[in-house]
Design brief:
The protein has 485 residues and is an alpha/beta fold. It folds into two domains: 2-260 and 461-484, Aldehyde Dehydrogenase, Chain A, domain 1 (3-Layer(aba) Sandwich); 263-414 and 418-449, Aldehyde Dehydrogenase, Chain A, domain 2, CATH 3.40.309. It is 39% helix and 21% strand. Helix 3 (89-100) crosses helix 4 (104-124), helix 4 (104-124) packs parallel to helix 5 and helix 9 crosses helix 10. The longest helix is centred in the first third of the chain and has 21 residues, at 104-124. Bound molecules: succinic acid (SIN).
């Protein structure tokens, strides 16, 4: 099926180190499958410790000349990269759907979203401002410089195989850093295609390296223990984030961690229920529910509970499952068997604990990774579905009575990535917006993703921000000069 890709140069299956496509030293490869039909898409080089070390050396060697470039020159290269991504949008989207499964319309959207980070940071590259501060004495001057932190390691997930890469690599490159990327082994083709386009745009050898590997622990150990790597940016599970954080302690690396979420989606009595249903559909079912910012717990106030559930059922029932390549499909497969089994387990637990099944509740057919869009009502705090990240197309709906009660329930989690609520009263909006312990809050909207906004969490959802004017800071260090005149 990779034959569907028109620009054949986008299809690469080797490691990308120092501007060269290379095989693993031991010749090992791993298989990449289409999660929809389990078709083998291709074999990709399986790098390990040796190749990761090689990539770090390449990134280190390339650092001096890349950071010495004028910001405007780095900006121009990033702009060319952005343009090339958009010129290849359709091919990149097909590649993404083939290895990840999401519907083609969503893949096209992700390519545009991913490109928007490159464009944003191409602009921000020119705005790395320092400061002047009044000196402590008449003959002293204090100047603040912002400088690139150095070699960056980026570890990215399979759920957004394109955009999670660009929103780390683009700010790193804009700041003058060089990068070693380890993408998910489920979706290496998108990573290699984006690296190819970066190189075509003029990103010099060694500035952006890609290690494809099934040996995530070993590669992670090399990246986190290397004194040359000055920063790690990771998007993925909270458990792995904690491990990486520990591993980075010995070399005191700067970290950005975008970890798991458990988003509350609250509908108040005065909400526009139709708008809330529309928001819930996009927030819950985008990418088959496999986003860190998906609505995980849908709290509906009692006066609108029945009407909301009814309308949600009608809207959910219209969603079509199937191959992401087929026109009209809204929900593709889950990424792998482990993910499907987890979703099944959460639904089973909720039903055993007294929840009611309103829609779905099983796979499309036995053995398939397609899971029917599902609605569960009468959900309660004690159920696993309330404390775990579902990462599947299952909407769990809870009833609540008061504003204070729902704020308490919404905050009763270690996660703090995204939250959403729908309501009209101005005082209520401010009260809830300020009380929610989350890094991002969607108010009367189910979509919060935007390159111009700071994406990131609080509590155990991590720290650091991606996108926006804050996103560059994560790749910079602050130095001050005290000058005696
Ligand atoms: C994520 O799921 O981690 C990213 C979602 C987004 O950027 O919209």
């Amino acid at each position: 099926m990779l034959s569907l890709i028109k620009n054949r140069q986008l299809v690469n299956s080797q490691l990308f180190i120092n501007g060269h496509w290379i095989s693993a030293a031991d010749g090992q490869t791993f298989d990449v499958y289409n999660p929809f039909d389990h078709e083998l898409l291709g074999k990709v080089a399986d790098g390990g410790v040796e190749e990761t070390e090689e990539a770090i050396v390449a990134a280190h060697t390339a650092l001096a000349s890349w950071q010495a470039l004028a910001a405007i020159d780095r900006s121009r290269i990033l702009k060319r990269w952005h343009n090339l991504v958009l010129e290849n949008q359709e091919d990149l989207a097909i590649l993404l759907t083939l290895e990840q499964g999401k519907p083609l319309t969503e893949s096209r959207g992700e390519i545009a979203y991913g490109a928007s980070y490159i464009e944003w940071f191409a602009e921000e590259a020119k705005r790395v401002y320092g400061d002047t501060i009044p000196g402590p004495q008449a003959d002293k001057r204090t100047i603040v410089l912002k400088q690139p932190i150095g070699v960056v390691a980026a570890i990215t997930p399979w759920n957004f195989p394109n955009a999670m890469i660009t929103r780390k690599v683009a700010p790193a490159l804009a700041a003058g850093c060089t990068v070693v990327l380890k993408p998910s082994e489920e979706t290496p083709f998108s990573a290699l295609a984006i690296a190819y386009l970066a190189s075509e745009a003029g990103v010099p050898p060694g500035v952006f390296n890609v290690i494809t590997t099934t040996q995530a622990a070993e590669a992670g150990e090399v990246l986190t223990s290397s004194p040359v790597v000055k920063k790690l940016s990771f998007t993925g599970s909270t458990a792995i984030g904690k491990l990486l954080m520990k591993q980075c302690a010995d070399t005191v690396k700067k970290l950005s961690l975008e970890l798991g979420g458990n988003a509350p989606f609250i509908v108040f009595n005065d909400a526009d229920v139709d708008a809330a249903v529309e928001g819930a559909i996009v927030s819950k079912y985008r990418n088959a529910g496999q986003t860190c910012v998906c609505a995980n717990r849908i709290y509906v106030q009692e006066a609108v509970y029945d009407v909301f559930v009814e309308k949600l059922k009608v809207a959910t029932d219209k969603l079509r499952l199937g191959s992401g390549l087929n026109e009209g499909v809204n929900i593709g497969p889950l990424i792998n068997e482990k993910a499907a089994t987890k979703v099944e387990g959460l639904v089973k637990d909720a039903l055993e604990c007294g929840a009611s099944l309103e829609l779905g509740g099983h796979r499309f057919y036995s053995g398939s990774l397609l899971y029917l869009p599902t609605i569960i009502t009468d959900a309660r705090f004690e159920m696993k579905i309330s404390s775990e990240e579902i990462f599947g197309p299952v909407a769990a709906v809870y009833k609540f009575e008061t504003v204070d009660e729902v704020i308490r329930l919404a905050n009763n989690t270690d996660a703090g990535l995204a939250a959403y609520f729908y309501g009209k009263d101005n005082a209520l909006i401010w009260k809830v917006a300020e009380a929610l312990e989350y890094g991002m809050v969607g108010i009367n909207t189910g979509i919060i993703s935007d390159a111009a906004a700071p994406f990131g969490g609080v509590k155990q959802s991590g720290f650091g921000r991606e996108g926006s004017k804050y996103g560059l800071d994560d790749y910079l260090v602050t130095k001050y000069l005290s000058i005696k005149t």
